[in-house]
Amino acid sequence: MRDKEHIRKSHNVTMLLYHIVLPAKYRKDVFTKDVFDTLIEICQRIEKSYEIMFLEIGNDEDHVHFMVQ
Q1: pTM
Q2: Helix H segments across 1-69?
């Protein structure tokens, strides 16, 4: 969602990237367009509440990928 950039704080500079893959239970096809749109909205709310950024979010019908900083 955003460009990859360093996080600058008063005493450090970091760039930690996490690739998280979450499969649906029994790999069922549950990630439809509506579910994925809702997931994007939830991730945007999480970004505002916590000090993390979702750089990329991708999906297939049976799993979701997150690139989180």
Answers
A1: 0.76
A2: 33-49
